[in-house]
Write a structure and sequence with these properties.
Length: 372
């Protein structure tokens, strides 16, 4: 905005006392190269036409209507700070957290500094999801703590991880290796962790004609599949007593959480085996249940099944999609039967398009909104 509109005065309002959003609270501590973008943010903040006001919560300390009366333009960029729910029995048991909560915990986010996940009373952790965030939390659980000590991870999290008894991490996905939602870069990193054995059921690597078609249409999917296939082959006969284990569990979906003997903490996840079937509407392969079940024992569950944005009073909001209805970043009115934009009200980032993408994705998204 400062580049595009000469003479503009920009106030950044944040509910936290510190700036930089997900770069500070969402990027893994062992990814300092991603956090370099903070330098660019700092240069913007140093501009005399830019001011930062922290510890101000929209909807509590100031309303959207008050903001719109105060400023010529309001750009909403508060992201997705809540989690999707599985909606299955036992989800409220102790020992079950969202991946977002765990990420915020080890990054020192003030909302989660008291989370205190129990890492000492179990050997096995289950992560539901196989996207990049799922790989992040798995990597933090398994990475050598001496290496983590050189990062900016929260001190209390490092202490807890040093005392962790977790030696097996299971990454559970509803579909197969071809459909794994991670990127090749993130996958390559976790497959290369020191002293970690990669465990993949070779039968899960068998591909169908539909899988082959997907890989022909997506270089990323093919590369992910190739990396998983190679890892399964390399680690096939490697097993040492002091190794930790990373299990990729494909074609499984959670049905319920089973309590441990004390009745209050999670003791296992019941999984249903799935098979892929072509969706008649979208044509995509979707996971359907087979009626076969198995229990996977664990004392920690991290749900990496997606974020969701929350509405604020006076803001049009699509509850089904979890985004603010917009036209290239201009908020659409909910009170008009025709497509009408709200004057001076814009949206950007995950609140605009949903919780997907990387830093570069948000840059293009912001350019579109400012250009609108």
């Amino acid at each position: 905005m400062l580049k595009s509109h000469e003479g503009a005065q920009v106030d950044i309002i944040d509910r936290l006392p510190t700036p930089f959003g997900l770069v500070r609270s969402g990027v893994a501590p062992d990814h300092p190269e991603t956090k370099i973008v903070v330098n660019q943010f700092s240069r913007v903040a140093a501009n005399g036409s830019c001011s930062f006001f922290g510890n101000v919560t929209l909807g509590r300390d100031i309303s959207l209507s008050e903001l719109r009366k105060t400023y010529h333009v309001v750009v909403l960029a508060y992201g997705a700070e809540s989690d999707r729910s599985l909606g299955i029995p036992g989800e409220d048991l102790k020992g079950i957290h969202s991946a977002r909560e765990f990420v915020w915990w080890y990054n020192g986010h003030p909302d989660m500094c008291d989370l205190s996940p129990d890492l000492k009373n179990t050997e096995s952790a289950v992560i539901l999801g196989q996207g990049n965030v799922a790989l992040d939390v798995a990597r933090i659980l398994l990475r050598c703590k001496t290496e983590l000590a050189t990062t900016d991870i929260a001190d209390y999290a490092l202490d807890a991880l040093r005392g962790s008894t977790i030696r097996k991490v299971h990454l559970v996905g509803r579909r197969g290796p071809v459909q794994a939602a991670c990127t090749a870069k993130e996958l390559r990193e976790i497959l290369g962790l020191k002293n970690v054995r990669i465990c993949i059921n070779e039968a899960d690597l068998a591909t169908s004609p539909a899988d082959e078609e997907e890989m022909r249409n997506s270089r990323i999917q093919r590369r992910v599949y190739e990396l998983l296939s190679k890892a399964a082959s390399v680690h096939k006969d490697n097993s040492y007593s002091d190794q930790k284990e990373l299990h990729f569990v494909f074609f499984r979906r959670p049905i319920k959480f089973i309590p441990s003997e004390n009745g209050s903490t999670v003791g296992a996840v019941q999984l249903e085996k799935t098979a892929l079937k072509g969706d008649e509407v979208t044509g995509k392969q979707v996971a359907v249940g087979t009626g076969e079940f198995e229990d996977l024992k664990c004392g920690l569950v991290l749900k990496s099944i997606g974020y969701k944005s929350l509405p604020v009073q006076g803001l049009p909001f699509d509850k089904n999609r979890g985004v603010v209805p917009n036209l290239r970043g201009r908020v659409l009115s909910s009170e008009s039967e025709t497509t009408t934009v709200e004057s001076g009200l814009y949206v950007v980032g995950w609140l605009k398009r949903g919780p997907t993408g990387i830093v570069a994705t948000n840059l293009h998204c912001a350019e579109e909104t400012v250009g609108g």
